[in-house]
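lol ok so funny story. i was supposed to be doing the assay writeup but got distracted and ended up predicting the structure for this chain instead. priorities right. anyway since i did it might as well share w the group, maybe its usefull for someone
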Amino acid sequence: MDDSFDPIDTQDLELHLLLEAIYLKFQYDFRRYSRASLRRRLASALPALKCATLSALQERLLHEDGILSELMHFLTIQVSDLFRDAAFFFTLRRDIVPILHTYPSLRLWIAGCSTGEEAYSYAILLAEEGLLDRTVIYATDINAESLRIAESGIYSAERLSTFTANHRLSGASVPLSHHYTEGYGSIVFSRTLRNHIVFSDHSLATDGVFAEMQLVSCRNVLIYFQRDLQNRALCLFKDSLCRRGFLGLGAPETLRFTELDHEFVEVGERWHQRC
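and the output, tada:
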């Protein structure tokens, strides 16, 4: 026996096999996601799905219908809010919108849109800035249930105070109430907003570019990727953007020390413009 042989840790092997099974059976590729993040998410998923081990979870995934949709709730990013990080949107209004006004038409890509709050934030801001009529917003995610919620445009009225405060801090000059109706404990964003948003399935791990954009926003998604997948996603964004187009990233994310650092210049808080 070779004394130098170093056997793989059982939990690492289980995780590897689970991710391969998800990819081969369902074509969802989590193999280049951050292992630390995946372990935390799966640790929460196991008791919720009544599985003692990742191997038991893999067995259920392979043989029981409906388990994948439950697991996707844990594997995909569910944290979202209207005008989340209001300073980001304030910078958009002040520094980016004047340049967007120079385009006869606009296409925006919101990558990793989750349950849609980010997409509606952009639609509301562009409506208030007189740009929505010439805009199509493509909002993408890999979670079908999240996309269903996003497309409905319906959210709990309990979140309204946070939505309203964030909207005001984004530099809005009109009340948020201009954009929704309220009733039965829920708010519904206006059909005018929803008509300018196309919600669609798209994977940053496996899919390609689908249109030329003037603006791409992908916030707090890249932090869950390994470095090679981060670079793949950033290359997609670069290839999607027109010359002098804009890329918005989350607070913990940066282009510095990436392969594309030289392709962009910083133009504001967490905003970058393609050279």
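The longest strand covers residues 241-249. The chain has ten helices and ten strands.
back to the writeup now i swear
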